[in-house]
Amino acid sequence: MSASVTAVPSGTVGFSDEQLAELGMSFRGPIYAPGDPGYDECRSVENLAIDRHPGLIIRCSGEADVIDGVALARDHGLLLAVRGGGHHVAGHGTVDGGLVLDMRDMNGVWVDPVNKTVRVQGGATWGQVDREAQVFGLAVPGGVVSTTGVGGLTLGGGIGWLHRKWGLSCDNLISAQVVLATGELVNANADEHPDLFWAIRGGGGNFGVVVDFTFHAREVGPEVALAAVFHEASAGAELMPLWRDLALRAGDDVTTRALYWSMPPAPDLPPPVQGKDVFIVAAMYAGDKQDGQGIIDEFRSLGDPLFDMSEHVPSYRAFQAGFDPLVTNLYSYWKSTYLDELTDDAIAFIHERAMSRPDPSVLIHVPIMGGATAAVPADATAFGDRSAPFMLSFDGGTYDREKYDKVRRWVRESIDAAGRIEGAGGAYLNFSGDEPGEERVIRQQFGANLERLKAVKTQYDPGNLFRINNNITPN
Question: What is the model's pTM?
Fold first, then answer.
């Protein structure tokens, strides 16, 4: 880049009108500086609690914009954030004063139905992938909601509705194109840059900007056997042990989760659940609908529900999007841990916390793990240990900014107390708000893989240009 950039302390930047004009001529996509029309819209991310003001946003239109943006940050010592879907709860897609590479317009999805692969640009969301792939009865194992970005979820692992059958999102990655800190565009796969390929499967955005992913696609849907059943929240103490036992014997074709939440008092919701505190049993069979209907009906028959929405969700794509309202337009703060066992004591603790939620939009989320996810050795990808059969996530959220601090404190208290459960430990870094001392959590997550990750980081990003993330520092 030839533009002269005036650096100010701590990696932030200031631009004159002349410099901005020169930069604007250099990129195919638009650029936004503070005060520009569209700047506030571009700087926002999914979590409303993240209110950062970048010095410059480059709305990248292709690999060339990403390459030049990386060079701009590197050559002028700028803090650099990379925005894909903008969904990470810690706000890793934005940064105060620095440079944001916004890839949301790089959202192409190309399906090869013959070879059952899907190629995805780095700014796409899982909803966009589902839209294209489901036409062919295919899906890539993604997340729990459709608004999540493909890039962040995959680089951090990728727990969703298909992980017991086909593993994490990163387990289904065939190849990636990565822009390195040097500006070089490389292919990372089993044969080319294999250490980098290992590292980006769970190690986050520490090693470069992934502009293109190629995945295995799996035969799923469009119609699937699924359960979406709503009970009184007070019934959770009795129902969660039954759900746990059923989940453990249901087989790897079934991914299921139990959730505590509060339904909004919206008139378009079924009257039995409007404004109710609920315990939700959700499950999906990742195979032929007729083959899976029997086991799914067992989940539907637990207890005496307020409402069974299962028949009202017509497809895999609809199910994937059905939980979007749980995480949208909220001031959010999340923390998670893994559980070696979901004991009756752990269930009693979870229920007690559910009954003390400080806001209706606070979600407690307990997915079963295992299956194909646990079949992958801990050192096969950067993700780390996969042996825990359950995860516990406290997904704090509120529509009221004034309540955010209270929600955040409650999440911190909950995760600290959960750490005293026997067999609890580690964290799913895609479900983790930033906090001082995260090095400890990162070490717990990656375990023995951390030293290898540091070596890969040292090789590909020795200056730690890519550090607005769950950061792995170079040696």
Answer: 0.94
